[in-house]
């Protein structure tokens, strides 16, 4: 094993080399970190399009009673494209209009059920209660159930919901 | 203040001593640029670890999704850069490892007491090749799939344990999901763990015995590694990493078509660093194949591993070890020549990616007729055709084409199923969609011709490598036949050639169809 001579003088050359080595390593590290950040924080290039999905026929809906419908639609999720499903409640009011309420509780995202006896939506997770029009009545939910855009196809009376 | 924090840290961790141990290694005088290759390898391996870890954010190791996830990675600039760096750095590692090995052999650096440093280096070289092999299966493109098929079949050739080794490599009963997860696990967990252990051992052994230095010890003062030799290391690393980045920036890392076990027109070729072995196999046909595939590589690696015990003299100068240097010069030359031969021996049949083949065009026309577009439209039950790369396996798609309702239950009116030939054309179209985001619609004029070819001609005739082989290849038929002859030939072959065995199509095709296919074929001439 060879030994270093003691006290290598701190010359200008040594300082320049130190600057070069440390600067280059810092440069490579910074470039790598920037690239890693850009790669990892890629914005979710998901399927942002909304689409109209058929949810049933207007004639089948009883007045003022929310009817659950499971809708199936295709969704692109990164490299994965799959059939997604979502539950919505269709409510026909007396005047012939239709509303669609999302079944997702505004508290923590569980799916609410319609309780026909008390005419209330009830969330099974933390006891949230909503009125038939989706207003929060009891429990933790902070907001009404989300309302979705609805239109009725005049030709065949089909109800379409925008997802 | 900062000084006090650092002092406190040093009292607890002793980091200053660690820094001295790590960086102040004394180097013998005359340690030059050729001694930077080890650091280059270390830097490139670090790049592989970082870019590889990043790639796992998006990569999915299943046959149904691997290819799509790689396309997804390729869709952004950062993705192309990360994947490109991983791809090109892999090639650079093979080159740098080979140069490092040649430097160690030429300088006699493997000699006592450094035998184990050498041995760990040989194992590292094999590990690097194992990384390369398991890595290029992962994109699940044509090259990946067929290279894996060939590798597993080569393993099968090995005497005694061949079948056992092959089934371990394959995982399942066919090359598929179990093979992919197995090679993925090897590539990202098992091999990296071994790599870290061996790199640490290799570097620790190198530090224990010190750098061998120039062949003939020079007089002079030893200098510390940092910053004197580190500056050389960093300079070379900057050039190498810069080159890899430039390559990744300018060229899309290669990705071929989706893996397709039924592709007959595809000519598999390995990555360049296995081209030498690929070429070697050509010289050992039949029962001698074992020699090229197993015996020669095994003997070469064994001799390499035993080198410190073969070349035992104390002399380090190359000219005093003519036999060893001669054997290595021959071996290096042989690998270079074989690689160059393998490189230049490119089959001409590799289809150009640009234009649509007739078969794919026919599939496009068929798939866009009412049977598919009942469901596959904007807002329909299925995704619009061509809106996204197909994320299903080809087996799934052929099942769906045979019986759409079976795979997508609940269709009110299942469409009339396709004929076998129509299905083959649609599969060609689906493969085309999977290959790239090139969704340009083919010219209107060829559509009728494409349909006629797919329904009537493809059983016996080949165009651009697709079709049956009973009749002649029609790819350049226009060079020898004019439009009128072709029209008569198709309508009634015996009117042109009394000995023709081709059935007449005069009654089976409408005049418009006959005209379209004859016009198309007349235009088929050498490009």
Summarize the structure.
Chain A is an alpha+beta fold and 163 residues long. Helices cover 18% and strands 34% of the residues of chain A.
Task: Please render the helix and strand layout as text.
The complex is a heterodimer of chains A (163) and B (527).
Chain A lengths: L11 H29 L11 E6 L9 E11 L2 E13 L5 E5 L10 E3 L4 E3 L6 E2 L5 E3 L8 E2 L1 E3 L5 E5 L1
Antiparallel strand pairs in A: 1-11, 2-3, 3-4, 4-9, 5-6, 6-7, 7-8, 10-11
Chain B lengths: L1 H12 L1 H9 L2 E2 L9 H19 L10 H9 L2 H30 L8 H21 L6 H16 L4 H9 L6 H33 L13 E2 H26 L24 H8 L6 H17 L1 H4 L11 H23 L13 H10 L2 H4 L20 H9 L1 H4 L12 H16 L10 H12 L4 E2 L2 E2 L15 H9 L19 H12 L5
Antiparallel strand pairs in B: 1-2, 3-4
Annotation, overall tally of beta strands of chain B: 4
Average pLDDT of chain A works out at 84
Number of beta-strand segments of chain A:
11
Q: Alpha-carbon distance between the termini of chain B?
A: 76 Å
> Could you state the order of secondary-structure elements of chain B as H and E?
HHEHHHHHHHEHHHHHHHHHHHEEHH
Name the structural class of chain A: alpha+beta
| Percent in helix of chain A | 10-25%
**Largest interchain contact:** A-B, 32 and 43 residues
In DSSP terms (H or I, runs of 4 or more residues), the helix count of chain A works out at 1
Major beta-sheet overview of chain B: 2 strands, antiparallel
Determine the oligomeric state from the structure: heterodimer
The secondary structure category of chain B is mainly alpha
Mean pLDDT level of chain B? 85
**Basic shape of chain A:** elongated
Short descriptors:
A: 163 residues, alpha+beta, four-stranded antiparallel sheet, B: 527 residues, mainly alpha, two-stranded antiparallel sheet, 4 strands, elongated
């Amino acid at each position: 094993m060879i030994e270093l001579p003691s006290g290598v003088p701190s010359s200008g050359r040594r300082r320049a080399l130190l600057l070069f080595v440390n600067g280059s390593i810092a440069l490579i590290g910074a470039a790598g970190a920037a690239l890693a950040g850009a790669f990892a924080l890629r914005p979710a290039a998901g399927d942002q399009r909304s689409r109209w999905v058929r949810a049933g026929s207007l004639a089948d809906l009883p007045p003022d009673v929310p009817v659950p419908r499971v809708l199936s639609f295709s969704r692109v999720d990164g490299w994965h494209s799959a059939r997604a499903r979502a539950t919505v409640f269709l409510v026909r009011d007396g005047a012939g209009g239709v509303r669609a309420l999302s079944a997702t509780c505004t508290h923590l995202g569980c799916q609410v059920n319609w309780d026909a006896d008390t005419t209330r939506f009830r969330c099974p997770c933390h006891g949230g209660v909503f009125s038939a029009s989706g207003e929060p009545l009891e429990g933790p939910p902070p907001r009404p159930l989300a309302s979705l855009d609805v239109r009725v196809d005049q030709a065949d009376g089909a109800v379409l919901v925008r997802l | 203040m900062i000084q006090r924090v650092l002092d406190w840290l040093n009292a607890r961790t002793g980091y200053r001593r660690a820094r001295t141990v790590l960086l102040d290694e004394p180097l013998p005088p005359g340690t030059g640029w050729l001694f930077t290759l080890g650091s280059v390898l270390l830097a490139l391996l670090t790049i592989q670890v970082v870019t590889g870890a990043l790639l796992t954010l998006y990569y999915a190791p299943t046959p149904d999704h691997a290819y799509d996830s790689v396309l997804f990675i390729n869709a952004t600039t950062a993705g192309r850069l990360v994947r490109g760096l991983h791809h090109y750095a892999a090639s650079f590692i093979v080159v740098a490892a080979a140069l490092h090995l040649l430097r160690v052999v030429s300088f006699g650096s493997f000699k006592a007491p450094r035998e184990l440093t050498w041995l760990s280096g040989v194992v590292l070289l094999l590990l690097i090749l194992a990384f390369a092999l398991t890595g290029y299966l992962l994109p699940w493109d044509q090259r990946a799939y067929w290279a894996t098929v060939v590798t597993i079949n080569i393993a099968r050739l090995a005497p005694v344990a061949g079948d056992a080794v092959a089934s371990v490599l394959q995982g399942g009963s066919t090359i598929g999901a179990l093979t992919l997860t197995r090679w993925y696990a090897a590539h990202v967990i098992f091999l990296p763990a071994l790599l870290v252990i061996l790199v640490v051992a290799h570097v620790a052994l190198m530090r224990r015995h010190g750098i061998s230095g120039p062949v003939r010890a020079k007089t002079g003062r030893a200098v510390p590694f940092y910053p004197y030799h580190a500056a050389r290391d960093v300079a070379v690393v900057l050039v190498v990493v810069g080159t890899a980045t430039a390559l990744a920036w300018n060229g899309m890392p290669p990705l071929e078509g989706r893996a397709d076990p039924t592709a007959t027109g595809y000519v598999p070729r390995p990555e360049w660093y296995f081209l030498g072995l690929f070429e070697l196999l050509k010289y050992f046909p039949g029962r001698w194949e074992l020699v090229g595939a197993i015996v020669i590589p095994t003997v070469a690696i064994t001799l390499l591993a035993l080198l410190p015990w073969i070349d035992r003299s104390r002399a380090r100068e190359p000219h005093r070890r003519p036999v060893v240097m001669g054997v290595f010069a021959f071996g290096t030359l042989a690998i270079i020549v074989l690689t160059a031969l393998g490189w230049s021996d490119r089959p001409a049949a590799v289809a150009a990616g640009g234009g649509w083949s007739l078969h794919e065009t026919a599939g496009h026309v068929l798939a866009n007729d009412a049977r598919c577009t009942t469901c596959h439209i904007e807002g329909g039950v299925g995704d619009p055709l061509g809106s996204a790369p197909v994320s299903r396996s080809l087996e799934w798609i052929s099942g769906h084409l045979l019986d759409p309702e079976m795979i997508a239950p609940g269709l009110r009116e299942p469409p009339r199923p396709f004929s076998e030939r129509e299905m083959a054309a649609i599969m060609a179209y689906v493969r085309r969609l999977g290959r790239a985001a090139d969704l340009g619609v083919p010219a209107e004029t060829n559509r009728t011709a494409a349909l006629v070819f797919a329904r009537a001609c493809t059983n016996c005739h080949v165009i651009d490598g697709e079709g049956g082989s009973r009749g002649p290849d029609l790819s350049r038929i226009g060079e020898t036949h004019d439009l009128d002859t072709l029209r008569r030939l198709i309508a009634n072959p015996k009117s042109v050639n009394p000995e023709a065995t081709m059935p007449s199509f005069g009654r089976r095709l409408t005049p418009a169809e006959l005209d379209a296919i004859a016009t198309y074929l007349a235009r088929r001439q050498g490009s």
